[in-house]
Amino acid sequence: MKYKKQDISRASRLSVAPMMDWTDRHCRYLHRQLSGRALLYTEMVTAPAAIHGDRDRLLGFDPAEHPVALQLGGSDPAELAQATRIGAEYGYDEINLNVGCPSDRVQSGCFGAVLMERPALVAECVAAMRDAATVEITVKCRIGVDDQDPQDILPRFLETVSAVGVTRFTIHARKAWLKGLSPKENREVPPLDYPLVIAMKRAFPHLHLSINGGITNLDQAEALLAEGLDGVMIGRAAYHDPGAILADADRRIFGAEGGRDAFAAVEAMRPYIETHLAAGGRLHSITRHMLGLFAGRPGARGWRRVLSEGAHRPGAGLELLDRALAELGRDVAAPVRAQG
Ligand SMILES: Cc1cc2nc3c(=O)[nH]c(=O)nc-3n(C[C@H](O)[C@H](O)[C@H](O)COP(=O)(O)O)c2cc1C
């Protein structure tokens, strides 16, 4: 199903963050089994990779993943425009520009968080992307980099970039230090500044602003939405404990029926896994994203152990999933129902 702009805005009330090596298509398919509503982001794909790389491998996705957004990395307007056209042809519901990722590789190509210093170039990039296709273009950014003063530069960044018609932003509520901190440290060390992001919503009420960074549960997400923010994006917590974040999201964040608990999601994954195995894929490519499904429950360690020890072995199949479920004391034949 193709989503309209207002439906995507609504879906972004709760989104799962773009995460390299993590939010691949198998991960997104799993997350979609838990929440029918949340907006899912791809890993970042650089514009040159989208143009010259193995497109089906980088951009292919299952229709069940909708609503799904493609995140692009780059700083060349013409390349980003071309990559946007390609992404739109693949059927993505949104195309997002990465202005937040601080890794060295990304810096060397002059894109990601370093672009916080060049709002006029970001505006040029998103203007070219908007001209290239009708799909909605959005931006994910930080509150600043290095010695920038976020109070000063963040409003100017939003003003400059929104002037070309981008109205939806996700703000990772901490700075990135481009030198001296690893990408991992850059997600932990610079302090979070939620009040600044909330202030941006008050200053720019016409913009759709989602907040990101350090949100670990739905109580926190609800509290931030109650502050007037339009959306909450969750990264690591959604990956490590998808059952806790996503299974209740449809009900609590979207006020809708639906969503599945972790056991029902495992059952829903079976046909998908079978198809993947039949096409010659490894079980591990899918189950590596399922390790956190039962986090905190009795038997969760056994579930993780059985899957992480066995799933990469050639020939591993659904019987391993059954053995892992048995660690949770689950009668494999027990019926499971969708929630809601
Ligand atoms: C493994 C990993 C990979 C990431 N890759 C990307 C990426 O490709 N693009 C991006 O904008 N942010 C990336 N991020 C940052 C997340 O999108 C998010 O902004 C950050 O983790 C803070 O949110 P959280 O505290 O909810 O995890 C990555 C984070 C992690 C943990």
From TrEMBL:
Catalyzes the synthesis of 5,6-dihydrouridine (D), a modified base found in the D-loop of most tRNAs, via the reduction of the C5-C6 double bond in target uridines. Specifically modifies U20 and U20a in tRNAs. The lineage of its organism: Bacteria, Pseudomonadati, Pseudomonadota, Alphaproteobacteria, Rhodobacterales. The record marks 98, 184, 187, 301, 304 as: Interacts with tRNA. It catalyses: 5,6-dihydrouridine(20a) in tRNA + NAD(+) = uridine(20a) in tRNA + NADH + H(+); 5,6-dihydrouridine(20a) in tRNA + NADP(+) = uridine(20a) in tRNA + NADPH + H(+); 5,6-dihydrouridine(20) in tRNA + NADP(+) = uridine(20) in tRNA + NADPH + H(+); 5,6-dihydrouridine(20) in tRNA + NAD(+) = uridine(20) in tRNA + NADH + H(+). One of its GO terms (molecular function) is tRNA-dihydrouridine20 synthase activity. The active site is at 101 (proton donor). NCBIfam families: PRK11815.1, yjbN. PROSITE patterns: UPF0034. SUPFAM superfamilies: FMN-linked oxidoreductases. The keyword tRNA processing applies. This is tRNA-dihydrouridine(20/20a) synthase. FMN binds at residues 18-20, 71, 140, 172, 212-214, 235-236.
